[in-house]
Specification:
Elements lengths: L1 E6 L7 H13 L3 E5 H4 L13 E3 L10 E6 L1 H11 L6 E5 L14 H10 L2 E13 L9 E2 L2 E6 L6 E7 L2 E8 L1 E5 L7 H4 L11 E7 L9 E4 L4 E6 L4 E6 L2 E6 L4 E15 L4 H8 L9
Parallel strand pairs: 1-2, 1-4, 2-3, 4-5
Antiparallel strand pairs: 6-7, 6-17, 8-11, 8-15, 9-10, 9-14, 11-12, 12-13, 14-17, 15-16
Helix pairs in contact: 1-4
């Protein structure tokens, strides 16, 4: 089995966890491909007994069977850019905090990896959005698993975002900005701005204003087959555009359109795990001091 691994910087307390992961892969004689940015943290003497190859983001990772993300949700979103259009199944080991995407706890790592080798999992296919523009933005990484955001650049007055669905005007939002999220991203930035939770297989995009001036303006759910385009204006002529954690500065001459990407992200769903279970755990649903 060929396995890719990417992660973020970790402290000494996580060294035993990494040893446990690498020992499991060694036991199953897996071929490992570790990102160069993550390899530099694997310098402890205990790692010298393990063998792997390295890759740089942007390299073509051919025919990986599984990709392992070690960190939080941000690390998993970054890992998605390493996989790109290959749709390699990805599993997130959560060494961060909340973890809607990286759902496997440190305590469950060994059992979870054994399930991978037994094939005891299914694939949770997640929709990806793509940003199209008349200017070169984000290069080949013009896609996002979570969300696209268009927001003001500084602390000046609000901006106006004229938003169109399939060419028809939806609304002119007077706000700090606007978010278009996939169902996956509905539990992220969009949720913090009052957007709804959307089940991953719903086939929708969610458009959520950021701090709108008009309090009757609310998030709206549209089909993910829609083409969502924008014209933006404001006193400041510079604005921020983001795709997940990647950010670019644009001016009011830029033309922006969000559509559904042609590929999906395959999240590994292990036996005993489900999206609803994750929601209950992460949002503390059903917990009450009276229980």
């Amino acid at each position: 089995m060929k396995i890719g691994i990417h992660g973020k910087e970790f402290n000494r307390q996580l060294v035993p966890l990494m040893e446990k992961i690498l020992l499991c892969f060694q036991k199953h004689k897996a071929d490992l491909f570790i990102s160069t940015s993550f390899e530099k943290y694997l310098k402890a003497p205990s790692f010298k007994k393990f063998k792997w190859k390295t890759y740089k983001p942007g390299d073509t990772l051919k025919k990986l069977d599984v990709f392992l993300s070690i960190g939080g949700d941000g690390t998993l979103l970054e890992s998605v850019t390493h996989i790109g259009k290959d749709e390699t199944p990805i599993l997130g080991i959560n060494t961060g905090r909340l973890g809607f995407l990286a759902t496997i706890s440190k305590e469950d790592v060994k059992e979870s990896l054994e399930k991978i080798f037994r094939g005891a999992f299914t694939l949770d296919k997640r929709t990806v959005l793509r940003l199209e523009s008349n200017k070169k933005l984000f290069g080949k990484l013009n896609f996002a698993l979570n969300d696209f955001a268009l927001v003001k650049k500084d602390s000046s007055s609000m901006i106006t975002v004229h938003t169109f669905i399939d060419g028809e005007l939806l609304n002119s939002y007077w706000a700090d900005g606007i978010i278009v999220s996939t169902p996956t991203g509905s539990t992220g930035y969009a949720l913090s701005c009052g957007g709804p939770l959307v089940f991953p297989r719903s086939g929708n995009f969610v458009i959520t204003p950021v701090s709108p001036h008009n309090l009757t303006v609310r998030p709206i759910v549209v089909s993910d087959n829609s083409e969502i385009s924008f014209k933006v204006e404001g006193r400041s002529k510079k604005f921020l555009v983001s795709l997940d954690s990647r950010v670019a500065v644009v001016d009011d001459s830029v033309k922006l359109k969000v559509v559904k990407e042609n590929f999906k992200v395959n999240l590994i769903l292990l036996e005993g795990h489900h999206y609803f279970k994750t929601l209950r755990q992460k949002l503390n649903w059903g917990l009450d001091i009276r229980n």
